[in-house]
Design a protein that fits this description.
Elements lengths: L4 E4 L2 E3 L2 E3 L4 E2 L3 E2 L4 E3 L2 E4 L3 E4 L7 H12 L6 E3 L5 H4 L2 H7 L4 E4 L1 H10 L8 E3 L5 E3 L4 E6 L9 E5 L4 E3 L21 H4 L1 H11 L4 H12 L5 E3 L10 H12 L5 E9 L4 H15 L5 E5 L5 H10 E11 L2 E2 L1 H12 L6 E7 L6 H10 L5 E2 L4 E3 L5 H18 L1
Helix pairs in contact: 6-10, 7-8, 9-13, 10-11
The protein binds MU-OXO-diiron (FEO).
The site of MU-OXO-diiron has 9 residues, from α2.
Length: 400
Protein backbone atom coordinates (compact mmCIF):
# COMPACT_ATOMS: atom_id res chain seq x y z
CA UNK A 1 0.00 0.00 0.00
CA UNK A 2 1.19 3.51 -0.72
CA UNK A 3 2.63 5.55 2.15
CA UNK A 4 3.02 9.16 1.06
CA UNK A 5 2.97 12.53 2.74
CA UNK A 6 1.60 15.73 1.24
CA UNK A 7 4.12 18.45 2.09
CA UNK A 8 2.29 21.28 0.35
CA UNK A 9 -0.62 21.65 -2.05
CA UNK A 10 1.29 20.10 -4.95
CA UNK A 11 4.42 18.65 -3.30
CA UNK A 12 4.59 15.06 -2.04
CA UNK A 13 7.14 12.90 -0.20
CA UNK A 14 7.19 9.54 -1.99
CA UNK A 15 10.32 7.93 -0.47
CA UNK A 16 10.79 4.97 1.84
CA UNK A 17 12.35 3.90 5.12
CA UNK A 18 14.81 1.07 5.70
CA UNK A 19 15.06 -0.13 9.31
CA UNK A 20 16.83 -3.39 8.49
CA UNK A 21 20.02 -1.98 7.07
CA UNK A 22 22.92 -2.75 9.41
CA UNK A 23 25.60 -0.59 7.81
CA UNK A 24 24.96 2.43 5.60
CA UNK A 25 27.50 2.43 2.77
CA UNK A 26 28.77 -0.82 4.32
CA UNK A 27 30.48 1.25 7.03
CA UNK A 28 28.14 3.24 9.26
CA UNK A 29 25.78 1.57 11.74
CA UNK A 30 22.25 2.94 11.43
CA UNK A 31 20.45 1.56 14.49
CA UNK A 32 17.52 3.89 13.81
CA UNK A 33 17.44 3.07 10.11
CA UNK A 34 17.59 5.54 7.26
CA UNK A 35 15.10 7.21 4.97
CA UNK A 36 15.52 7.63 1.24
CA UNK A 37 13.53 10.69 0.29
CA UNK A 38 12.09 11.35 -3.14
CA UNK A 39 9.66 14.13 -3.99
CA UNK A 40 6.97 14.71 -6.59
CA UNK A 41 5.69 18.11 -7.75
CA UNK A 42 2.33 17.88 -9.50
CA UNK A 43 2.45 20.89 -11.79
CA UNK A 44 1.08 21.25 -15.32
CA UNK A 45 3.91 18.87 -16.01
CA UNK A 46 4.88 16.31 -13.38
CA UNK A 47 8.30 16.26 -11.76
CA UNK A 48 10.06 13.64 -9.67
CA UNK A 49 13.11 14.74 -7.73
CA UNK A 50 15.50 11.78 -7.34
CA UNK A 51 14.63 8.15 -6.87
CA UNK A 52 15.53 5.80 -4.00
CA UNK A 53 17.69 2.89 -2.87
CA UNK A 54 16.81 -0.58 -4.16
CA UNK A 55 15.80 -1.68 -0.64
CA UNK A 56 12.70 0.55 -0.70
CA UNK A 57 11.91 0.40 -4.41
CA UNK A 58 8.60 -1.45 -4.04
CA UNK A 59 7.27 1.17 -1.62
CA UNK A 60 8.59 3.98 -3.78
CA UNK A 61 6.86 2.79 -6.96
CA UNK A 62 3.58 2.29 -5.09
CA UNK A 63 3.92 5.81 -3.73
CA UNK A 64 4.76 7.27 -7.12
CA UNK A 65 1.86 5.50 -8.84
CA UNK A 66 -0.54 6.74 -6.17
CA UNK A 67 0.57 10.36 -6.42
CA UNK A 68 0.68 10.42 -10.21
CA UNK A 69 -2.78 8.83 -10.25
CA UNK A 70 -2.55 7.89 -13.90
CA UNK A 71 -0.72 11.01 -15.05
CA UNK A 72 2.46 10.53 -17.03
CA UNK A 73 5.79 11.46 -15.50
CA UNK A 74 7.35 14.30 -17.46
CA UNK A 75 10.64 14.91 -15.64
CA UNK A 76 13.07 13.21 -13.30
CA UNK A 77 15.50 15.73 -11.84
CA UNK A 78 18.64 13.87 -10.80
CA UNK A 79 20.41 15.75 -8.05
CA UNK A 80 22.73 12.93 -6.97
CA UNK A 81 23.92 9.74 -8.63
CA UNK A 82 24.93 7.72 -5.58
CA UNK A 83 23.00 4.44 -5.77
CA UNK A 84 21.10 5.11 -2.53
CA UNK A 85 19.23 7.65 -4.68
CA UNK A 86 19.53 6.38 -8.22
CA UNK A 87 19.47 2.57 -8.02
CA UNK A 88 15.85 2.48 -9.17
CA UNK A 89 16.37 4.82 -12.12
CA UNK A 90 16.45 2.10 -14.78
CA UNK A 91 13.22 0.59 -13.45
CA UNK A 92 11.68 4.08 -13.42
CA UNK A 93 12.64 4.58 -17.06
CA UNK A 94 11.12 1.19 -17.95
CA UNK A 95 7.86 2.13 -16.22
CA UNK A 96 7.81 5.69 -17.54
CA UNK A 97 9.43 5.55 -20.97
CA UNK A 98 8.31 9.13 -21.70
CA UNK A 99 10.28 10.64 -18.78
CA UNK A 100 12.96 13.23 -19.52
CA UNK A 101 16.03 13.23 -17.28
CA UNK A 102 17.13 16.64 -16.08
CA UNK A 103 20.84 16.23 -15.39
CA UNK A 104 24.16 17.97 -15.60
CA UNK A 105 26.96 16.71 -17.84
CA UNK A 106 28.76 14.80 -15.08
CA UNK A 107 25.50 13.15 -14.03
CA UNK A 108 24.84 12.03 -17.58
CA UNK A 109 28.24 10.32 -17.73
CA UNK A 110 27.54 8.59 -14.42
CA UNK A 111 24.13 7.37 -15.59
CA UNK A 112 25.84 5.78 -18.58
CA UNK A 113 28.42 4.22 -16.26
CA UNK A 114 25.73 2.66 -14.08
CA UNK A 115 23.03 1.80 -16.62
CA UNK A 116 22.60 0.64 -20.20
CA UNK A 117 19.38 2.46 -21.19
CA UNK A 118 19.62 5.32 -23.67
CA UNK A 119 20.31 8.16 -21.24
CA UNK A 120 21.53 10.79 -23.74
CA UNK A 121 18.37 10.27 -25.82
CA UNK A 122 16.15 11.34 -22.91
CA UNK A 123 18.46 13.83 -21.18
CA UNK A 124 17.95 17.54 -20.77
CA UNK A 125 21.42 18.72 -19.77
CA UNK A 126 21.55 21.72 -17.45
CA UNK A 127 24.31 23.83 -15.97
CA UNK A 128 24.62 26.36 -13.14
CA UNK A 129 21.69 28.77 -13.10
CA UNK A 130 19.67 27.06 -15.84
CA UNK A 131 15.94 26.88 -15.24
CA UNK A 132 13.05 24.57 -16.02
CA UNK A 133 9.46 25.81 -16.00
CA UNK A 134 6.78 23.18 -15.60
CA UNK A 135 3.71 25.43 -15.36
CA UNK A 136 3.43 27.33 -12.08
CA UNK A 137 6.86 26.23 -10.89
CA UNK A 138 10.26 27.29 -12.12
CA UNK A 139 13.22 25.23 -10.97
CA UNK A 140 16.74 26.61 -10.92
CA UNK A 141 19.74 24.28 -10.86
CA UNK A 142 22.74 25.04 -8.67
CA UNK A 143 25.87 22.91 -8.83
CA UNK A 144 27.16 21.56 -5.51
CA UNK A 145 30.20 19.46 -6.44
CA UNK A 146 31.57 17.24 -3.66
CA UNK A 147 28.50 17.61 -1.48
CA UNK A 148 28.99 14.70 -1.58
CA UNK A 149 30.01 13.46 -5.06
CA UNK A 150 31.34 15.56 -7.95
CA UNK A 151 28.11 15.52 -9.98
CA UNK A 152 25.87 16.74 -7.13
CA UNK A 153 23.54 19.61 -7.83
CA UNK A 154 20.68 21.05 -5.84
CA UNK A 155 17.39 22.28 -7.23
CA UNK A 156 15.70 25.47 -6.09
CA UNK A 157 12.00 25.84 -6.76
CA UNK A 158 11.81 29.61 -7.14
CA UNK A 159 8.01 29.58 -7.08
CA UNK A 160 7.67 27.71 -3.78
CA UNK A 161 11.03 28.87 -2.32
CA UNK A 162 11.95 25.26 -1.73
CA UNK A 163 15.45 23.84 -1.90
CA UNK A 164 15.86 20.20 -2.87
CA UNK A 165 19.23 19.90 -1.21
CA UNK A 166 20.49 16.40 -2.12
CA UNK A 167 22.59 14.93 0.71
CA UNK A 168 23.01 18.34 2.37
CA UNK A 169 20.84 18.83 5.47
CA UNK A 170 20.23 15.08 5.61
CA UNK A 171 20.53 12.78 8.60
CA UNK A 172 20.61 9.11 9.49
CA UNK A 173 17.37 7.79 10.97
CA UNK A 174 14.17 6.46 9.43
CA UNK A 175 11.18 8.80 9.52
CA UNK A 176 8.61 7.86 12.14
CA UNK A 177 5.57 9.50 10.65
CA UNK A 178 6.91 12.96 11.38
CA UNK A 179 8.29 14.01 8.03
CA UNK A 180 8.89 17.63 9.07
CA UNK A 181 11.69 18.47 11.48
CA UNK A 182 9.19 20.51 13.51
CA UNK A 183 7.09 17.38 14.06
CA UNK A 184 9.88 15.79 16.10
CA UNK A 185 12.17 17.07 18.84
CA UNK A 186 15.08 17.48 16.47
CA UNK A 187 17.68 18.92 18.89
CA UNK A 188 16.94 16.18 21.44
CA UNK A 189 16.29 13.16 19.23
CA UNK A 190 17.93 13.80 15.86
CA UNK A 191 20.85 16.21 16.16
CA UNK A 192 23.41 13.58 17.20
CA UNK A 193 22.56 11.44 14.19
CA UNK A 194 22.51 14.49 11.92
CA UNK A 195 26.00 15.37 13.12
CA UNK A 196 27.21 11.79 12.69
CA UNK A 197 25.73 11.77 9.18
CA UNK A 198 27.25 15.12 8.19
CA UNK A 199 30.71 14.59 9.65
CA UNK A 200 31.16 11.07 8.29
CA UNK A 201 29.52 11.51 4.89
CA UNK A 202 30.60 15.02 3.85
CA UNK A 203 32.86 16.13 6.73
CA UNK A 204 35.91 16.00 4.47
CA UNK A 205 34.37 18.46 2.01
CA UNK A 206 33.85 21.49 4.25
CA UNK A 207 34.89 24.01 1.60
CA UNK A 208 32.39 22.53 -0.87
CA UNK A 209 29.64 22.70 1.76
CA UNK A 210 30.51 26.33 2.46
CA UNK A 211 30.12 27.00 -1.27
CA UNK A 212 26.63 25.51 -1.14
CA UNK A 213 25.74 27.48 1.99
CA UNK A 214 26.71 30.66 0.16
CA UNK A 215 24.35 29.80 -2.69
CA UNK A 216 21.59 28.90 -0.21
CA UNK A 217 22.08 32.21 1.59
CA UNK A 218 21.35 34.07 -1.63
CA UNK A 219 17.81 32.69 -1.92
CA UNK A 220 14.75 32.77 0.31
CA UNK A 221 14.11 29.39 1.94
CA UNK A 222 10.59 28.37 2.97
CA UNK A 223 11.37 24.67 2.80
CA UNK A 224 14.44 22.43 2.55
CA UNK A 225 13.93 18.90 1.25
CA UNK A 226 16.99 16.68 1.76
CA UNK A 227 17.46 13.14 0.45
CA UNK A 228 17.63 11.66 3.99
CA UNK A 229 15.72 12.52 7.15
CA UNK A 230 13.22 15.23 8.00
CA UNK A 231 12.11 18.10 5.78
CA UNK A 232 12.69 21.62 7.11
CA UNK A 233 10.04 24.36 7.05
CA UNK A 234 10.70 26.05 10.43
CA UNK A 235 13.93 27.12 12.14
CA UNK A 236 15.88 26.48 8.95
CA UNK A 237 18.47 29.02 10.10
CA UNK A 238 19.18 26.95 13.22
CA UNK A 239 20.20 23.94 11.12
CA UNK A 240 22.07 26.10 8.60
CA UNK A 241 24.12 27.45 11.53
CA UNK A 242 25.04 23.87 12.51
CA UNK A 243 26.19 23.32 8.95
CA UNK A 244 28.21 26.54 9.05
CA UNK A 245 30.04 25.32 12.14
CA UNK A 246 30.58 21.78 10.92
CA UNK A 247 31.76 22.88 7.46
CA UNK A 248 34.24 25.37 8.93
CA UNK A 249 35.43 22.80 11.50
CA UNK A 250 34.35 25.17 14.27
CA UNK A 251 33.49 23.31 17.50
CA UNK A 252 29.86 23.52 18.52
CA UNK A 253 30.90 23.93 22.14
CA UNK A 254 33.81 23.86 24.53
CA UNK A 255 34.20 20.36 25.88
CA UNK A 256 36.51 17.39 26.03
CA UNK A 257 36.09 14.03 24.36
CA UNK A 258 38.47 11.43 25.77
CA UNK A 259 38.96 8.35 23.60
CA UNK A 260 41.07 5.52 24.96
CA UNK A 261 42.41 2.20 23.67
CA UNK A 262 43.24 -0.10 26.55
CA UNK A 263 44.11 -3.82 26.68
CA UNK A 264 44.11 -4.59 30.42
CA UNK A 265 42.42 -1.49 31.80
CA UNK A 266 45.36 0.68 32.86
CA UNK A 267 45.10 3.13 29.96
CA UNK A 268 41.35 3.27 30.64
CA UNK A 269 42.20 4.02 34.26
CA UNK A 270 44.38 6.96 33.19
CA UNK A 271 41.57 8.26 30.97
CA UNK A 272 39.02 7.99 33.80
CA UNK A 273 41.33 9.76 36.24
CA UNK A 274 41.84 12.62 33.77
CA UNK A 275 38.08 12.87 33.27
CA UNK A 276 37.58 13.17 37.05
CA UNK A 277 40.28 15.81 37.32
CA UNK A 278 38.69 17.82 34.51
CA UNK A 279 35.27 17.59 36.13
CA UNK A 280 36.75 18.75 39.45
CA UNK A 281 38.08 21.79 37.63
CA UNK A 282 34.54 22.55 36.47
CA UNK A 283 35.08 21.58 32.87
CA UNK A 284 31.88 20.46 31.16
CA UNK A 285 31.05 18.44 29.22
CA UNK A 286 33.57 15.62 29.36
CA UNK A 287 32.76 12.47 27.38
CA UNK A 288 34.82 9.27 27.74
CA UNK A 289 34.81 6.50 25.13
CA UNK A 290 36.54 3.15 24.71
CA UNK A 291 37.54 3.16 21.03
CA UNK A 292 37.45 -0.64 20.91
CA UNK A 293 33.71 -0.77 21.54
CA UNK A 294 32.65 2.55 20.03
CA UNK A 295 32.13 2.87 16.29
CA UNK A 296 34.60 5.39 14.81
CA UNK A 297 31.72 7.30 13.20
CA UNK A 298 30.48 8.23 16.70
CA UNK A 299 33.92 9.49 17.66
CA UNK A 300 34.39 11.43 14.43
CA UNK A 301 31.11 13.20 15.20
CA UNK A 302 32.14 13.88 18.82
CA UNK A 303 35.51 15.24 17.68
CA UNK A 304 33.72 17.67 15.35
CA UNK A 305 31.39 18.66 18.19
CA UNK A 306 33.89 19.50 20.93
CA UNK A 307 36.85 21.83 21.17
CA UNK A 308 39.21 19.39 22.88
CA UNK A 309 40.25 15.83 22.23
CA UNK A 310 42.31 13.50 24.41
CA UNK A 311 43.67 10.34 22.82
CA UNK A 312 44.95 7.66 25.19
CA UNK A 313 46.53 4.59 23.66
CA UNK A 314 48.51 1.64 24.75
CA UNK A 315 51.49 0.66 22.60
CA UNK A 316 50.92 -2.46 20.51
CA UNK A 317 53.27 -4.12 18.04
CA UNK A 318 55.56 -1.15 18.71
CA UNK A 319 52.82 1.12 17.32
CA UNK A 320 49.48 2.70 18.13
CA UNK A 321 46.81 0.23 19.30
CA UNK A 322 44.85 -0.85 16.24
CA UNK A 323 41.46 0.66 17.16
CA UNK A 324 43.08 3.98 18.06
CA UNK A 325 45.11 3.98 14.86
CA UNK A 326 41.88 3.35 12.95
CA UNK A 327 40.21 6.30 14.69
CA UNK A 328 43.14 8.60 13.97
CA UNK A 329 43.10 7.64 10.29
CA UNK A 330 39.36 8.34 10.22
CA UNK A 331 39.76 11.76 11.86
CA UNK A 332 42.48 12.63 9.37
CA UNK A 333 40.45 11.31 6.40
CA UNK A 334 37.51 13.48 7.46
CA UNK A 335 39.79 16.53 7.62
CA UNK A 336 39.19 17.30 11.29
CA UNK A 337 41.18 20.41 12.09
CA UNK A 338 41.68 23.18 14.59
CA UNK A 339 41.33 21.09 17.74
CA UNK A 340 43.36 21.13 20.95
CA UNK A 341 44.63 17.67 21.76
CA UNK A 342 46.04 15.91 24.82
CA UNK A 343 47.90 12.62 24.56
CA UNK A 344 48.31 9.71 26.95
CA UNK A 345 50.46 6.74 26.06
CA UNK A 346 51.06 3.43 27.78
CA UNK A 347 53.73 0.81 27.16
CA UNK A 348 55.07 -1.86 29.48
CA UNK A 349 58.59 -1.78 28.06
CA UNK A 350 58.81 0.64 25.11
CA UNK A 351 55.95 3.18 24.92
CA UNK A 352 55.81 4.71 21.44
CA UNK A 353 52.08 5.38 20.92
CA UNK A 354 52.30 9.02 22.05
CA UNK A 355 55.01 9.95 19.59
CA UNK A 356 53.28 8.11 16.76
CA UNK A 357 49.88 9.69 17.51
CA UNK A 358 51.61 13.08 17.55
CA UNK A 359 53.05 12.37 14.09
CA UNK A 360 49.59 11.69 12.65
CA UNK A 361 48.19 14.81 14.31
CA UNK A 362 51.11 16.75 12.80
CA UNK A 363 49.82 15.79 9.35
CA UNK A 364 46.43 17.36 10.15
CA UNK A 365 45.63 21.07 9.92
CA UNK A 366 45.92 23.36 12.98
CA UNK A 367 45.99 20.62 15.61
CA UNK A 368 47.54 21.94 18.80
CA UNK A 369 49.07 19.21 20.97
CA UNK A 370 49.28 20.12 24.63
CA UNK A 371 52.16 19.37 26.99
CA UNK A 372 52.78 17.10 28.74
CA UNK A 373 52.16 13.82 26.95
CA UNK A 374 51.30 11.55 29.86
CA UNK A 375 53.41 8.40 29.77
CA UNK A 376 52.28 5.33 31.69
CA UNK A 377 54.56 2.33 32.16
CA UNK A 378 52.07 -0.53 32.62
CA UNK A 379 49.90 1.00 35.38
CA UNK A 380 49.21 4.49 36.71
CA UNK A 381 51.49 5.43 39.65
CA UNK A 382 51.92 8.63 41.64
CA UNK A 383 54.18 10.08 39.01
CA UNK A 384 51.47 9.68 36.36
CA UNK A 385 48.87 11.19 38.66
CA UNK A 386 51.02 14.30 38.65
CA UNK A 387 51.35 14.19 34.86
CA UNK A 388 47.58 13.74 34.45
CA UNK A 389 47.03 16.72 36.75
CA UNK A 390 49.39 18.77 34.61
CA UNK A 391 47.52 17.76 31.45
CA UNK A 392 44.20 18.65 33.11
CA UNK A 393 45.67 22.07 34.01
CA UNK A 394 46.84 22.55 30.42
CA UNK A 395 43.40 21.67 29.06
CA UNK A 396 41.71 24.05 31.51
CA UNK A 397 44.18 26.84 30.66
CA UNK A 398 43.65 26.36 26.91
CA UNK A 399 39.90 26.72 27.44
CA UNK A 400 40.41 30.04 29.09
FE1 LIG B 1 22.70 9.72 0.24
FE2 LIG B 1 25.74 10.64 -1.19
O1 LIG B 1 24.11 9.69 -0.99
Amino acid sequence: MYCVRKLRDDLYWVGGNDRRLALFEGVYPVPRGVSYNAYVVLDEQTVLLDTVDKSVSEQFFENLDHVLDGRKLDYLIVNHMEPDHCATMDELVRRHPEVKLVVNAKTLTMIQNYFTFDAPGRAQVVKEGDTLTTGRHTFTFLMAPMVHWPEVMVTYDTTAKTLFSADAFGTFGALGGGVFADEVDFPRDWLDEARRYYTNIVGKYGISVQGLLKKAAAVELDMVCPLHGPVWRKDIGWFVEKYRRWSTYTPEENGVVIAYASVYGHTANAADILAMQLAEKGIRPVAVYDVSVTHPSVLVAEAFRYSHLVLASTTYNAGIFVTMENLLMDLKAHALQGRTVGLIQNGSWAPTAGKLMGEVLGQMKDMQVLEPTVSVTSAVKDDQLTQLGALADAIAASMG
